[in-house]
Amino acid sequence: MEQALIYVVPALGLVGLIVMAIKSAWVTKQETGDKNMMELAGYIADGAMAFLKAEWKVLSYFAVIAIILLAWSGMSVETSSPVIAISFLIGAVFSAFAGYIGMNIATKANVRTTQAARTSLKHALKVSFTGGSVMGLGVAGLAVLGLGSLFILFYNMYVQSVGAGVNGVEMEKALEVLAGFSLGAESIALFARVGGGIYTKAADVGADLVGKVEAGIPEDDVRNPATIADNVGDNVGDVAGMGADLFGSYVATILATMVLGREIVSVDNFGGIAPILLPMVLAGLGIVFSILGMFFVTIKDDKGDVQHALNMGNWSSIVFTGIASFFVVKYMLPETLSIRGYDFTNMDVFYAIILGLVVGTLMSIITEYYTAMGKRPVKSIINQSATGHATNIIAGLAVGMESTVLPILVLAGGIMGSYAFAGLYGVAIAAAGMMATTAMQLAIDAFGPIADNAGGIAEMSQLPEEVRERTDILDAVGNTTAASGKGFAIASAALTSLALFAAFVGVAGIDAIDIFKAPVLAALFVGGMIPFIFSSLAIAAVGRAAMDMVNEVRRQFREIPGIMEYKAKPEYDKCVEISTKASLREMLLPGAIALITPLLIGFGFQGVFEQVSSAEMLGGLLAGVTVSGVLMGMFQSNAGGAWDNAKKSFEKGVEIDGEMYYKKSEPHKASVTGDTVGDPFKDTSGPSMNILIKLMSIVALIIAPHISQNPHVGSMSEKVEVKKEINYEEGKKVVTETITEIKKVN
User: Fold this and answer.
1) What does the H/E/C string look like for 450-482?
2) End-to-end C-alpha distance for the chain, whole angstroms
3) pLDDT given for residue 127 in this prediction
4) CB of 568 within 8 A of CB of 221?
5) 217, 348, 354, 507: most buried by Cβ count inside 10 Å?
6) What share of the chain is helix, strand, coil (3-state, %, to 5)?
7) Cβ–Cβ < 8 Å for 165, 272
8) How many CA atoms lie within 13 Å of 431's alpha carbon, on the beta-carbon side?
9) What is the C-alpha separation between 638 and 683, in angstroms, rounded?
10) What positions are marked as the site Determinant of potassium dependence (predicted)?
11) CA-based nearest residue to 279, from 413, 391, 427, 154
């Protein structure tokens, strides 16, 4: 029974990859349009791949250093192994490959979506969403396949081979080594997200400020030297960056639940590993139900509601997953379980999963409300654009700040509710439930930049107006889904970080984190500061790169005669080169802060304070960075999304105080300024927050055995057996069963 189920997990990941390959082949077979369209798409694809190769080269140096340090650290404690370095490498390669899959299909789907838009909105939606689904299935499939396969390997190596128990130090070692996979995934994700975000926004700001505001031409006009770099940026930031981001989130969520599941003594039919297996099984089934949900994403004609179609696909996959989780939980888990003295039932675990799905859905709905066209928040920004640039900025900041209230209340309710159901395991499994439909969430998210690129190619190719109208519909919906995806990602990061935090406390051997202790409170404040300095570095990097881009675009307009008359072709490669160099240079410092800070606190303060351990201080740091990072992520992502759609609203015309305003009007110019400010908010620093808080938690978890106050927590030699009788009904009989609970010696 155990052997059969444990192999089902990587098999489900393989199913996702097979369906991904089928969908990818279908997209590739679609028409690409005329020679000019193919030439422009080729520029975008070449620029995207050039950036990816340059980024991989830089990250390979980081990976080598990390592998050496991990291999060395793995030899110094009993609960780790040098194999953690190999696990890290596999996670890093899978994360990079997930980003490559997304970018490869996106650069093929964009021009095919443009061509499809020449026939109908329905066909354009099908091509763009299928392209997005390739990325979603690729990310989820790789994550489940990699995590499931490595768990089988490490479980056999460290537990089965020595006949050890599930709750002992041997399983702790297996999961500690598996954590290297998550560290590799999150490390690459952070650099990919920050680097891609700097790239895309530097190009976007340059294209907007010089092309739209100064030269008075459309953002995607073929005469704009930064337009190719801008479209490349959509791929490296919103596709490759997001792919690596959610790959890391997906893996970290499952891992955190597995680590906490090890602490549960489970009398089940799977050798006691059911609580550890459950999150992986949910993730695998989530891939299957995401595939089913993708069939619901369709419209009848050009008047169809694209947002409704995407919502139907999303909600159906969530409902299918929720229903299936009932049967999975009843099948896998025993009637009663306990973690750290908190008793719960298998049905409580099911309720926690459902709560996680509900929280994820509510987060998407709330984010959509604050960022979608036609809603009160975006309308408030539009109305205040009438009085100038400053009031537009004020309105956008206010919307962003207000948008944190409901999500935080939902998140807090989800944390308290899931804890009430199943303790800390409930919080973790709620996050796993939320992330189960990642394939669908990412398909919806990746659809946006594909549609954006399609609109850019339509504009640059000077296609008929109705083509651009269709791509604009897709693009506007894509802006909203992108914001919703970021809201979903930050919510999952908060739950995952709490689960990782709980796992860290257990491995580090600390019972509580007392903020009345001055060093712990100091670390809490430092943690709260980290997201601010991280955001500052990311936004400043965009500003510096954008200045270089603006100067280059101005130079070309000034020195290359005939650009405005379509008689000369701009030097697109110069702008691509500026974004590439700037992003690779500027991404290193923010990434280093996330990786090094936990190490400095964990190792730098060992033995410094007699009454306070460095592990407790590190716990304070994690608490601060999690709370501050979640709020910053929501604020920045939602403010940027609202500014963007406020600007786009002017393209169809808006009414302010009874008067209609369109593109090139003064209120529209104010909205362009707001959108420019919001660009690094929503695409660089904001979405990086969820990776920041998870990465720091994973680093803390990996170094926990080295700074533990109770080395080898989990070893059977340091635990005692407690006999406990439980009664339950089986048919008409009451059965009494004696179980053995393993409790840590205090």
Assistant:
1) HHHHHHHHHHHCCCCHHHHHHHHHHHHHHHHHH
2) 36
3) 94
4) no
5) 507
6) 80, 5, 15
7) yes
8) 33
9) 11
10) 482
11) 427
Closest alpha carbon to 642 in 481, 442, 472, 480: 480
User: Looking at beta carbons, which pairs linking 157-164 to residues 24 or more positions away fall under 8 Å?
Assistant: 157/83, 158/81
Is residue 723 helix, strand or coil?
strand
pLDDT at 344: 92
Residue 365 has which token pair? 């709905």
Residues 304-347 pLDDT 10s: 888 889 989 988 999 999 999 999 999 999 999 988 888 999 99
Q: Measuring CA to CA, which residue among 111, 122, 134 is closest to residue 31?
A: 111
Cα–Cα separations (whole angstroms), residue 173 to 154, 246, 394, 713: 9, 26, 52, 11
Q: Which residues of 215-224 are buried (b: 16+ CB within 10 A; e: fewer)?
A: bebbbbbbbb
Residues 6+ apart with CB under 8 A from 641: 367, 370, 371, 479, 480, 482, 483, 486, 678, 682
Tokens of 652: 């169809």
What is d(CA 485, CA 487) in angstroms, rounded to the nearest whole number? 5
3 state DSSP class of 1: coil
- DSSP letter string, 318-348: HHHHHHHHHHHHHHHS-SEEEETTEEEEHHH
Nearest C-alpha neighbor of 499 from the set 414, 601, 429, 582: 429
Distances from the Cα of 746 to the Cα of 165, 448, 660, 710, angstroms: 21, 53, 72, 10
- Mode of pairing for the β-strands spanning 336-339 and 342-345: antiparallel
How many C-beta atoms surround the C-beta of residue 495 within 10 A?
28
The 3-state secondary structure of 506-546 reads HHHCCCCCCCCCHHHHHHHHHHHHHHHHHHHHHHHHHHHHH
Q: Closest by alpha carbon to 552, among 225, 233, 230, 232?
A: 225
Please give the structure tokens belonging to residue 651.
Answer: 């393209």
Compute the distance between CA of residue 39 and CA of residue 24 in angstroms, rounded to an integer. 21
> What residue has token string 């928040």?
377
Angle of CA points 19, 24, 30, to nearest 5°: 135
For 384, 399, 644, the CA distances from 380, given in Å and listed in that order, are: 6, 8, 13
Give the Cα separation of 484 and 44 in Å (integer).
Answer: 26
Q: How many CB atoms lie within 10 A of CB 551?
A: 13
Distance, in Å, from the CA atom of 652 to the CA atom of 68, rounded to the nearest integer, reads 56
User: SS3 for 731?
Assistant: coil
Residue 723 confidence (pLDDT) = 46
Both structure tokens of 392: 């537009």
Q: Confirm if 506 and 262 have CB atoms less than 8 A apart.
A: no
Do the Cβ atoms of 107 and 235 come closer than 8 Å?
yes
Pair of tokens at residue 659: 């008067």
How far apart (Å, rounded) are the C-alpha atoms in residues 98 and 130? 16
Q: Is 166 exposed, middle or buried (0-12, 13-18, 19+ CB in 10 A)?
A: buried
Q: What is the dihedral of CA 35, 41, 43, 47, to 10 degrees?
A: -160
Under 8 Å between Cβ of 107 and 41: yes
Q: Half-sphere exposure of residue 520, counting CA atoms within 13 Å on the CB side?
A: 16
For residues 302 and 299, what is the distance between their CA atoms, to the nearest angstrom? Answer: 8
- Per the prediction, the chain carries an average pLDDT of 86
Q: Which of helix, strand or coil describes residue 611?
A: coil
Question: 10 Å Cβ neighbour count for 614?
Answer: 24
pLDDT at residue 691 in the model = 83
pLDDT recorded at residue 385: 93
Low-confidence ranges of the chain (pLDDT < 70): 1-3, 212-213, 219, 709-746
pLDDT at site 498: 82
Q: Can you give the pLDDT at residue 743?
A: 45
Phi, psi dihedral angles at 208 (to 5 degrees):
-70, -55
User: Token digits for 566?
Assistant: 């379509």
The reported pTM is 0.84
